[in-house]
Amino acid sequence: xxxxxxxxxxxxxxxxxxxxxxxxxxxxxxxxxxxxxxxxxxxxxxxxxxxxxxxxxxxxxxxxxxxxxxxxxxxxxxxxxxxxxxxxxxxxxxxxxxxxxxxxxxxxxxxxxxxxxxxxxxxxxxxxxxxxxxxxxxxxxxxxxxxxxxxxxxxxxxxxxxxxxxxxxxxxxxxxxxxxxxxxxxxxxxxxxxxxxxxxxxxxxxxxxxxxxxxxxxxxxxxxxxxxxxxxxxxxxxxxxxxxxxxxxxxxxxxxxxxxxxxxxxxxxxxxxxxxxxxxxxxxxxxxxxxxxxxxxxxxxxxxxxxxxx
Length: 310
Fold this sequence. Notes:
The protein has 8 helices and 14 strands. By secondary structure, it is an alpha/beta fold. It is globular.
């Protein structure tokens, strides 16, 4: 446990550089974030696309990720593996392979083909959705290695128990992942999500992982029943204890906003309700969803009123 540091020594301390994972303060190495929304708001698909974007170093909703990419585990506790497999294939067969702005769009098809490379794993608990190979940067100058995205379908692991945390630590040791995506939170907790001490137990275990592995964590959560259509809903309306609104560094709410009149594409609104480490407030982003490849593109904010009616 760290000891207190006198002010003079603290001011003289040189911290290591902050390692950005998602730009504008949304996620740093060692931070935690939550995406939440009502049932069928496509938050799980956004979380999966986030894993692809972080591993490949491409944008997510217009926000830059670590350019060289970093290894990610996407732990899915709800969707059957066969259906998840179909969803991943659909995403990686996307012609864009990217979300957000056009940064690195020229290399995205190459990224998609490489990130979809599969290999046998000697660990039955993990399916390697990606194995790193050499790829080229968008300007064609120097080759780079695309880190792996690990897809893990495990419907029974509980991360508020010593056994569950031990298994997760084993997987982290093996994969050397630097980002963990949990989808959804409620399936990882054996206790009552409404009870503070049960949720605090889960949080303590997760904080231990963050400290030991310098891990960044993105979690997916639902809204409470009865809050689905509340236009004034906020972080306090997430499923579970109020700690889920107070604990994360970043909280992103996802809402459906109808369909585009001309293209019939689904529209989402991503609201950045908490971004504790942002230097400037991040406004909501309107997101267009293409159903044929499950790709997401953030649109200019001035199109919000034009493209959908509240």
